[in-house]
Amino acid sequence: MSERQPPRGERWSGRLGFVLATIGSAVGLGSIWKFPYEVGENGGGAFVLFYLLGLVLVVLPLIFAEFALGRRGRGDAAASVAAVAAEAGRSPRRWAWIGGLAIATGFLILTYYAVVGGLTLAYLLHAIRRGFAGADGAATRALFEAMTGSPAALAAYQAAFLAATVAVVARGVGGGIERACRVLMPLLAALMLGLVAYAATAGDLRRTVAFLLAPRPEALTPRVALEALGLGFFSIGVGLGAMITYAAYAGRDTDLTTAAVATVAGDTAISFLAGFAVFPLVFAHGLDPAEGAGLMFLTLPIAFGRLPFGDAVGAAFFLSLFVAALASAVSLLELAVAPVVQRTGWPRARAAVGAGVVCWLLGLPSVLSFNLWREVRPLGAVPGFATAGLFDAIDRIASNLLLPASGLLLAVFAGWVARGDLLAAELRWGPRAVGALRFLLRWVVPALILAFVALGHLPR
């Protein structure tokens, strides 16, 4: 078959730009707080071993598959799946909906992710203008209530975050996404390294090392081991089709295997840096490391208020959160903008603005779930959703149901429908390596994803 070209001539300038963009897609808010917390609370080094096993068995196979599908299909997630299906002698219409599901899931996630991204911007501005000096638990709770209690203010921060996302995507792949990631990813790494250096001198580094790395096999129950295997899948966001879209813009000279490994390694490195930046400060001030999402907005500001140059440290931390959130949001918006541009012929700027406006409107229920609709329980009659507000309900549906479904279907498609010589050609692998990858995609990845989903419905 003739070599397909990237959509509308969009292309990464080279492997570095592509890898920085894919790392930006993988790194998100969860990489900053969820990964370190999960490691520390669930067995330390023993948990890490199972996490790394999950990367090998689930995450890397899916990234390899998405990269191969994207560069061969040369389109958005749905168009690439359709093109690969046609090449395999299958009906494009019967399979394209898998890519469509991935696009819809990513866009749904962006609608509420932008609300949290807006909060990182709000806290960044607060750190710069007023700081956290003297903050205690009551003060940080009051600050959070003030930040989220006004629908207009929260919607405005959500809009500002989306506006930044739209501004990047509207400028195209090379001039927008790649250029932004060439700034954002080194900036994020520099911020994390600076925070780690500060935390090592001002915090309790020894206890952090024990918390994150010391093996504690007794804490690693079968359930926790399965959670470790699945953590990479949910935190890196494979299965959304964003990697398909980004790979569609990759040149033939880009080594997809190296890019996939670099993406996973980069995300994991940022996660560990975040742990060594955050937990020394938490431990040094007797705070609770088990706060989960509250660690970002409720616990850490207390530590910042007690530290020398704490406001500057707090500003750097919330800037790093904003950068991580923005880079990830860019990939989610591009996931939706690409098919609009390719199917309607709209200019990219118009498609990006239109998608941004729709995303903002669809995100308003999540905004209102923090204030006017705080008591609304839309799925109260559904088991497992009795106490879930709008924000939590949407998050659970998207992250715990739609995302696993999308990842499972993409694995099945790549393992059973896509031709083996496609994977061999795009990844430049021999028959044995391709055979091993197809075995993982056909059997191991679907089985583990189903296990992750089942685990989420079991009582602790």
From TrEMBL:
<feature type="transmembrane region" description="Helical">
    <location>
        <begin position="261"/>
        <end position="283"/>
    </location>
</feature>
<feature type="transmembrane region" description="Helical">
    <location>
        <begin position="224"/>
        <end position="249"/>
    </location>
</feature>
<feature type="transmembrane region" description="Helical">
    <location>
        <begin position="45"/>
        <end position="65"/>
    </location>
</feature>
<protein>
    <recommendedName>
        <fullName>Transporter</fullName>
    </recommendedName>
</protein>
<feature type="transmembrane region" description="Helical">
    <location>
        <begin position="353"/>
        <end position="373"/>
    </location>
</feature>
<keyword id="KW-0812">Transmembrane</keyword>
<keyword id="KW-0769">Symport</keyword>
<keyword id="KW-0813">Transport</keyword>
<feature type="transmembrane region" description="Helical">
    <location>
        <begin position="315"/>
        <end position="341"/>
    </location>
</feature>
<feature type="transmembrane region" description="Helical">
    <location>
        <begin position="439"/>
        <end position="458"/>
    </location>
</feature>
<dbReference type="InterPro" id="IPR047218">
    <property type="entry name" value="YocR/YhdH-like"/>
</dbReference>
<keyword id="KW-1133">Transmembrane helix</keyword>
<dbReference type="InterPro" id="IPR037272">
    <property type="entry name" value="SNS_sf"/>
</dbReference>
<feature type="transmembrane region" description="Helical">
    <location>
        <begin position="95"/>
        <end position="115"/>
    </location>
</feature>
<feature type="transmembrane region" description="Helical">
    <location>
        <begin position="12"/>
        <end position="33"/>
    </location>
</feature>
<dbReference type="Pfam" id="PF00209">
    <property type="entry name" value="SNF"/>
</dbReference>
<dbReference type="InterPro" id="IPR000175">
    <property type="entry name" value="Na/ntran_symport"/>
</dbReference>
<keyword id="KW-0472">Membrane</keyword>
<feature type="transmembrane region" description="Helical">
    <location>
        <begin position="183"/>
        <end position="203"/>
    </location>
</feature>
<comment type="similarity">
    <text>Belongs to the sodium:neurotransmitter symporter (SNF) (TC 2.A.22) family.</text>
</comment>
<feature type="transmembrane region" description="Helical">
    <location>
        <begin position="397"/>
        <end position="418"/>
    </location>
</feature>
